[in-house]
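Reopening this one. Same input as before:
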Amino acid sequence: MELIINGERMNIPGQIKTASELLNYFQLEEKVLIVELNEAILEKSAHQDTRLSDGDRIEIVHFVGGG
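Same output, byte for byte:
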């Protein structure tokens, strides 16, 4: 499946079907982040049920602390 992630076209393995599985694939499931799918912010509770489709535009923003 081809997705546009943070502005970059990427081919993702076909077994990845949901936003949650995509985050696991990139090892981001434990990070504090925001996921936007086709210009709509996804609630964290919806990650597991939100199915991805070929051509979807996804923005993943995670926060980095420092001091």
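So the earlier flakiness isn't reproducible anymore. For the record, The longest strand covers residues 57-62.
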